[in-house]
Amino acid sequence: MEVSEPFRYDLVNTGREVLAQLAGPAGKNFSDAIGRKSIDAAEVRRTSAFYQQVLRDVDSLVGSDSAFLLGSWIEMAKGMADGSEDCVDTGYETISSCAAFYEWNARTQLTTWNPTPKGAAKIPGGPIDYAGKHWQGLIADYYAVRVKLVAEQALRDAANNAALNSTMVDAIEAKHAYDWTTATNPYPTPPVGDAATISKAMVAKYESFFSACA
């Protein structure tokens, strides 16, 4: 069922907020699971899978409205490269054009704020995730993947009867940040999917979690 603006925006934005209220506790449960001195592998698998699921569903929902597209942000940034003369040597081997330079800046601002060098032991200090957005592409490819990578480290540590190796987590998150911020893969600029159809699917999938609010 195709819907028109501004109803589509209100529908998607409301659903985004509802799912965000579920993503918060899901993230807290995952953090608790990996933060125990004795890691329960089954609990890490359960909490990380659910957290990733919610994040990817938010990504799918917001992707159905043009106001929440990472692709539009990146294309706008790349467009600023036309006629630009401030594309300096950044020391990043993947940034070989002004368009890539502006895209790198756009991706970095949304995630680590300060650039993360290749091979860094951790993400440089600063307001990490300060400018994060609920945008299609960013949620699934950056935040959900980060959860997956940290969960995998927690499971490796659990197999060795050890607590979470925070040093390894720092390095894993830094590599992920470097890889994502220097990437140039495209993201959709038109919306993907029907907002009403996706919203109905989200209601059916998650309504039980909010039954106490009825």
Give a quick set of tags describing it.
mainly alpha, Four Helix Bundle (Hemerythrin (Met), subunit A), 7 helices
Low-confidence stretches: none
The total strand number stands at 0
Q: The biggest beta sheet, please?
A: none
DSSP helix count? 7
**CA radius of gyration:** 19 Å
**What is the CATH third-level topology name?**
Four Helix Bundle (Hemerythrin (Met), subunit A)
Helix share of residues? Answer: 55-70%
Strand content: under 5%
> How confident is the prediction overall: mean pLDDT?
93
- What gross morphology would you assign? flat
Please give the domain count. 1
Task: Look at the structure and give the CATH class.
Answer: Mainly Alpha
Order of helices and strands: HHHHHHH
| CATH second-level architecture | Up-down Bundle
Oligomer: single chain
Structural class: mainly alpha
Topology of this protein?
Elements: H1 7-34, H2 41-62, H3 70-79, H4 98-110, H5 138-159, H6 166-181, H7 195-206
Question: What's a quick, concise take on this entry?
Answer:
The chain has 214 residues and is mostly helical. It has helices at 7-34, 41-62, 70-79, 98-110, 138-159, 166-181, 195-206. It has a single domain (7-213), classed as Up-down Bundle (Four Helix Bundle (Hemerythrin (Met), subunit A)).
